[in-house]
Design a protein that fits this description.
This protein is of the alpha+beta class. It folds into four domains: 60 residues, Ubiquitin-like (UB roll), CATH 3.10.20; 173 residues, Threonyl-tRNA Synthetase, Chain A, domain 2; 229 residues, BirA Bifunctional Protein, domain 2 (2-Layer Sandwich), CATH 3.30.930; 95 residues, Anticodon-binding domain (Rossmann fold, 3-Layer(aba) Sandwich). Helices cover 35% and strands 26% of the residues. It has 20 helices and 33 strands. It has an eight-stranded mixed β-sheet, sandwiched between helices. Strands 2-1-5-3-4 form a five-stranded mixed β-sheet, with helices on both faces. A hairpin with a 6-residue loop joins strand 18 and strand 19. Helix 3 crosses helix 4, helix 5 packs antiparallel against helix 6 and helix 13 packs parallel to helix 14. It is globular, with a radius of gyration of 30 Å. It binds one RNA strand through strand 12, strand 13, helix 8, helix 11 and helix 18.
RNA sequence: GCCCAUGUAGCUCAGCGGUAGAGCACUUCCUUGGUAAGGAAGAGGUCACGGGUUCAAGUCCCGUCAUAGGCUCCA
């Protein structure tokens, strides 16, 4: 007999060789139906794999990440099985589960698999799934594995196996298809009830651009047809919210071939929105003791040689520009920090001056490979909401806390209620690749960890993810559709103060090196606006939206009254337009609702007589009539409340 | 940069060897209206660009550029 211990601490006795599935059956038949994967003593385990020793067990269902993982992993094998039958001679790379589904990298030889082939492959997968083939695990030796896959000409698999440690290797077989795999897998393919192959793409073998490019097929699968329908619906919603689409519809920004790819042009409405965001952040930063600075768009090449950026990125970046007479070399500014370092270095600094906080909405230019450009989220010219804090080592934590406060204020004001944080620390086993003393690193790392604890921020800690110049804290927000976006970042930097030889005089009358913190709560204005558009679907908060109110006269007779009110509201700082087109009121309502205007005011004979407006709120319909003054007061209060909601 | 795909009116798209199309937007006229599309007429296109095949090319082929999905990269 063996003892099986459950996550709640309880222990039950089972016969040796019992499988997790049998354990589940002993608890309830419902659980047995739902369980799709397990872990045994921390190892991933098939539900049909016998357990021979005392063990800690966890049972996973579809709702668990581990359950989905096994489900999609088996789906990847099913995809491979279908491909094997449709494309004889096809060779397989790897086929893992990913965050949202699975993929398989394949080498179809001379055949080309196209988007239009996906339905055919899906149908084959469904046909194979319906057979409910058991997925059988087999342990074999490394030599046997190499022989088995070698005979089939599976060169990629052989390469993978030969790099594995000696000992037993597991394979999984369902139907005609056998794959090298660690598992775990579903007991049989019949659980897979709904499949959608989503896209097809090239992917380098082992992610190495020097090696062969394989065909990657992405898909997602579900245990219920309804779940697939919901997933498809969500994807359609995401498509509707695409910032590139909404940006065009709401006339926020554009790109022009004549200007160049990856170089966004902000249209009046988008520029107004961005300007409000910048004003908002400036106001907050002022409160936190920041000073605005401004620096030019180019800088002498030597500046970036000093900073080290040129050595690291120079060749793969925009090339230097030259003055015609003197042949001096300048670079388009890829970073604001070297400029800010020079500002720090311009005067003798005392420990009493610190921390110094220089902020700039600095536009930087970076060469991005053409295949990388994407709407506003990946561009070649963008504006960072940058600031560099120069402080003493003992001020690090305090400064971190303050930056976190700013970030929280922004997330709150913009209704990003769900966010996560990631702390990136250095790899302690490989300290020589980092600049700065061990003591400073330890100080900085514990400052970040403690700051997060004090703010009650649950942050994932990733060791080895730090930049060579310092540890960092990154913020990820979840938008209205649950998608994660990386936005704000706070990074400690020991490198630049060193390279620019920055100093302050301490209380001991000795020279000391300041610590620098880079931070950008939005990240970049372009990226942030893109995320904001997708989060809100273009329905921006009242304080931020470009046009707050549109007045719609019932007929031409009331145009004059409409303009008169618009004037009054604009004087009160309420951004107001008049829709005096020769259209019926229903038409005006529809068009302005589509433009996501927060307040629509209907004015006709009744309103004109009493100096009133009839109010319609975006998405909520008719709100009744009120006086113009009351409406103005209501809007002003709503804006004030939103801007001071922290 | 690499792989797959796409590029037709301002926007969304149809047409896929034989005289450039639709809806919306735009202009003009009619209509003067009460809470999500009133009516009519008109204007608008070297079918991304450059080559080729063909009696004939948005349509087939090649190249370039741009866009999209991935891969690699991201101070």
């Amino acid at each position: 007999m063996i003892n099986i211990k459950f996550p709640d601490g309880s222990v039950r006795e089972y016969a040796k060789g019992t499988t997790p599935l049998q354990v589940a059956e002993s608890i309830s038949s419902r659980l047995a139906q739902d369980v799709i994967a397990a872990s045994v003593n921390g190892l991933e385990w098939d539900v049909t794999r016998p357990i021979d020793t005392d063990a800690d067990i966890k049972l996973f269902k579809w709702d668990d990440a581990e359950g989905k993982h096994a489900f999609w992993h088996t789906s990847a094998h099913l995809l491979a099985e279908a491909l094997q039958s449709l494309y004889p001679g096809i060779k397989f790379g790897i086929g893992p589960a990913v965050e949202n589904g699975f993929y398989y990298d394949v080498d179809p030889g001379d055949a080309v698999i196209r988007d239009s082939d996906l339905p055919k492959i899906e149908a084959k997968m469904m046909e194979l799934a319906a057979k409910k083939c058991p997925v059988v695990r087999q342990d074999i030796t490394k030599e046997d594995a190499i022989k088995l896959f070698g005979e089939r000409g599976e060169e990629y698999k052989v390469e993978l196996i030969s790099e594995l440690e000696d000992g037993t290797i597991s394979t999984y077989t369902q139907g005609e298809f056998t794959d090298l795999c660690r598992g775990p897998h579903l007991p049989h393919t019949g659980n897979i009830k709904a499949i959608k192959l989503t896209s097809i793409a090239g992917a380098y073998w082992r992610g190495d651009e020097k090696r062969k490019q394989l065909t990657r097929i992405y898909g997602i699968s579900f245990p219920k047809k309804k779940m697939l329908d919901e997933y498809i619906q969500m994807m359609e919603e995401a498509k509707k919210r695409d910032h590139r689409k909404i940006g065009k519809e709401l006339e926020l920004f554009m790109f022009s071939q004549a200007v160049g790819q990856g170089l966004p042009l902000w249209l009046p409405r988008g520029a107004a929105l961005r300007e409000r965001l910048e004003m908002f952040l400036k106001r907050i930063q002022k409160r936190f003791g920041y000073q605005q600075v401004m620096t030019p768009h180019i800088g002498a090449k030597q500046l970036y040689v000093t900073s080290g950026h040129y050595a690291k990125y120079g060749k793969d970046s925009f090339q230097p520009i030259h003055t015609p007479e003197e042949n001096e070399e300048f670079l388009l500014k890829p970073m604001n920090c070297p400029h800010h370092c020079e500002i720090f270095a311009a005067f003798p600094r005392s420990y009493k001056d610190l921390p110094l906080r220089f902020a700039e909405f600095g536009t930087v230019y970076r060469y991005e490979q053409s295949g990388e450009l994407h709407g506003l989220t990946r561009v070649r010219g963008f504006t960072q909401d940058d600031a560099h804090l120069f402080c003493r080592p003992d001020q690090l934590k305090e400064e971190f806390l303050k930056v976190m406060d700013i970030i929280f204020i922004i997330f709150k004001a913009l209704n990003f209620e769900n966010f996560e944080a990631q702390i990136s620390l250095r790899d302690p086993s490989n300290t020589e690749k980092y600049i700065g003393s061990d003591e400073n690193w330890e100080k900085a790392e514990s400052a970040i960890v403690e700051a997060c604890q004090e703010k009650g921020l649950k942050a994932r800690v990733e060791t080895g993810e730090a930049a060579f110049y310092g540890p960092k804290l990154d913020f990820m927000v979840k938008d209205a559709l649950g998608r994660r976006w990386q936005l704000g970042t706070i990074q400690v930097d020991y490198n630049l103060p060193e390279r620019f030889n920055l100093e302050y005089t301490g209380a001991d009358n000795q020279k000391h090196r300041p610590v620098m913190i880079h931070r950008a709560p939005f990240g970049s204005m372009e990226r942030f606006v893109a995320v904001l558009i997708e989060h809100t679907a273009g329905k921006f908060p009242l304080w931020l939206t470009p046009d707050q109110v549109v007045i719609m006269p019932i007929s031409e007779k009331f145009n004059e009254y409409a303009h008169q009110i618009a004037n009054q509201l604009n004087m009160a700082d309420i951004r107001t337009l008049v829709d005096d087109r020769n259209e019926k009121i229903g038409r005006k309502i529809r068009d302005n609702e589509m433009k996501k205007i927060p307040y629509l005011l209907v004015v006709g004979e009744k309103e004109a007589e009493n100096n009133q407006v009839s109010v319609r709120k975006q998405g909520e319909g008719d709100q009744g009539t009120m006086s113009v003054d009351d409406f103005a007061a209501m809007v002003t209060k709503e804006v004030d409340d939103q801007m001071n909601a922290y």
